């Protein structure tokens, strides 16, 4: 994320339109907090359910990892929602609020949301292979293989935040505006190139690559499922007993569930990705720019959508997976 993007998260624009402020309070401070807390609880329940299932299927491993990353994404956003509360700004804490938000909330959130995107893309690709090569999928994807891949995703994605935490440090600095010493970001020499490169790679390239994999995998899966449905209808009941099914009914349900997860991720994450791209290109969207308020409103809506995206997967599982639903019911009955 560039420093221009950094400024857009701050609270120091010279003119703060009342409408934008009210929308931020309603959509982020109120709705974001409520949805986020529900999402953290729902994802925690999902982790318990998948642990109860025993990780017999590679998809259970993938969805457990996705729930963990979604919790990280939601927890980091909770700090952001708390810090942008007007009451917090009014008490003047001993640190620059926008700087603390950037290093303690937004960069951790970016890490976890990138992990969630890559895991979702992996799940979509895995199910795509299940449909295209149903007889070989268990040779290609196994539980141990899925654990290894998601572990690599969590580890490699740390590179998303290496540059920001290397070049940007919180240090005690005298503030003439407050006439006191506060914690604020002090960038290292030549910080701009490192932050800019990280922004281009992680916020632009990786994110759009994730979208491309999700869209391609979901499209290929949908086309092949349609062909499979036609194939099923083309054979008689007697032939159906003799011909080996290309894709089982159970597998089709899993594929449809993960396709909905992929679509919801794209729909909810695309606005922020587009905003980050626009801020990196259009200088007027940065702080004190002519369109700064547009950027603030866009961030406000985008963060709420990201909160929804990280919170809704458990509800998708409950409505589309009988195995998940039955395990959850048994868990509460035996609790």
From TrEMBL:
Keywords: G-protein coupled receptor, Membrane, Receptor, Transducer, Transmembrane, Transmembrane helix. The keyword Kinase does not apply. It is found in: Membrane. SUPFAM superfamilies: Family A G protein-coupled receptor-like (SSF81321). One of its GO terms (cellular component) is membrane. Residues 42-317 form the G-protein coupled receptors family 1 profile domain. GO terms for molecular function: G protein-coupled receptor activity. The chain crosses the membrane at residues 23-51, 63-84, 111-135, 147-168, 205-225, 258-282, 294-320. PROSITE patterns: G_PROTEIN_RECEP_F1_2 (PS50262). It holds the Pfam family 7tm_1. It comes from the Eukaryota. It is a multi-pass membrane protein. This is FMRFamide receptor. It comes from Biomphalaria pfeifferi (Bloodfluke planorb).
């Amino acid at each position: 994320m560039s420093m221009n993007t950094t400024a857009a998260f701050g609270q120091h624009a010279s003119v703060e339109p009342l409408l934008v402020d009210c929308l931020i309070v309603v959509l982020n401070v109120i709705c974001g907090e409520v949805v986020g807390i529900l999402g953290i609880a729902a994802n925690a329940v999902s982790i318990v359910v998948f642990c109860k299932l025993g990780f017999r299927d590679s998809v259970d491993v993938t969805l457990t990892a996705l729930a963990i990353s979604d919790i990280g994404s939601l927890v980091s956003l909770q700090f952001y929602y708390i810090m942008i509360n007007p009451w917090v700004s009014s008490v003047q804490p001993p640190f620059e609020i926008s700087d603390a938000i950037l290093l303690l909330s937004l960069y951790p959130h970016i890490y976890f949301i990138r992990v969630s995107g890559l895991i979702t893309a992996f799940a979509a690709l895995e199910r795509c292979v299940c449909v295209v090569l149903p007889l070989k999928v268990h040779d290609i994807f196994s539980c141990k293989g899925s654990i290894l891949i998601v572990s690599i995703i969590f580890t490699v994605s740390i590179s998303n935040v290496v540059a920001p935490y290397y070049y940007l440090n919180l240090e005690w600095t005298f503030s003439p505006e407050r006439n006191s010493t506060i914690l604020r970001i002090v960038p290292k020499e030549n910080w701009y190139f490192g932050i800019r490169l990280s922004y281009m790679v992680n916020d632009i390239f990786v994110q759009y690559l994730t979208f491309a994999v999700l869209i391609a995998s979901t499209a290929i899966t949908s086309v092949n499922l349609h062909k499979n449905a036609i194939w099923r209808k083309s054979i008689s009941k007697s032939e159906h007993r003799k011909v080996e099914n290309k894709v089982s009914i159970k597998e089709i349900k899993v594929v449809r569930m993960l396709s909905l997860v992929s679509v919801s991720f794209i729909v909810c994450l695309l606005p922020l990705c587009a905003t980050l791209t626009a801020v990196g290109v259009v200088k007027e969207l940065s702080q004190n720019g002519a369109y700064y308020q547009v950027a603030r409103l866009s961030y406000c809506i985008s963060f709420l959508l990201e909160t929804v995206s990280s919170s809704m997967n458990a509800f998708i599982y409950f409505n589309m997976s009988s195995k998940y639903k039955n395990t959850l019911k048994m868990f509460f009955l035996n609790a």
